[in-house]
Design a protein that fits this description.
By secondary structure, this protein is an alpha+beta fold. Helices cover 49% and strands 16% of the residues. The protein is globular, with a radius of gyration of 22 Å.
C-alpha cells in the first residue's frame, strides 16, 4: 500500500514553509516585492528544487514584466544564501539547488474565470429578490 505523501512531497512542503519565512524576514533587497511562495517541486534525487512564486501587485503581471524579471533575478542570486538557511533549518544532508520561477497559474485562472463568466453571463447562482418574497402569498403562508 503506497504512502499518502512521499518523502519528496514532504520535503517540498517543508521547504515551501521555510522559504516563505526566509524571503519575508531575511531577504532585505528592496527589488523583491511582496513575494508569495506558491509551490515547490523537488526532484527525486534532491538535486534541484523549482520554486514557483507570485508577486503582489495592483496590475496584471506576466513573466515579461520588469518587476517580475527583477524579483526573480534577485531571488536566483540569493539562492545560495537561502539554500544554506533551508539546510540548517531542515537539517538535510543534501540540500537541492534552488531555481525560482514566476507562477503564471494565477493569471491563467483569472483569464479562465473571466471567460467562463462571459460565456455563462455574470448572474448570481440564486436569483433572490427580497421584495418579491413579501408580495408572494404562497411563501408567506
Amino acid at each position: 500500500m503506497p504512502r499518502e505523501f512521499s518523502r519528496i512531497d514532504r520535503i517540498g512542503d517543508q521547504m515551501q514553509r521555510e522559504l516563505a519565512q526566509l524571503i519575508q524576514r531575511e531577504v532585505k533587497d528592496p527589488r523583491v516585492g511582496m513575494v508569495t511562495v506558491n509551490a515547490v517541486k523537488v526532484s527525486r534525487d534532491l538535486g534541484y528544487a523549482d520554486i514557483y512564486v507570485s508577486l503582489l501587485s495592483t496590475e496584471e503581471l506576466t513573466e515579461e514584466s520588469p518587476e517580475v524579471k527583477e524579483s526573480i533575478s534577485v531571488l536566483n542570486k540569493a539562492s545560495g544564501f537561502l539554500r544554506g538557511q533551508v539546510g540548517r533549518a531542515m537539517k538535510l544532508r543534501v540540500v537541492p539547488q534552488l531555481r525560482f520561477h514566476f507562477d503564471t497559474l494565477q493569471g491563467y485562472s483569472r483569464k479562465m474565470d473571466s471567460l467562463i463568466r462571459e460565456a455563462v453571463g455574470d448572474k448570481p447562482a440564486v436569483d433572490r429578490n427580497e421584495d418579491d418574497d413579501q408580495d408572494d402569498p404562497e411563501r408567506n403562508a
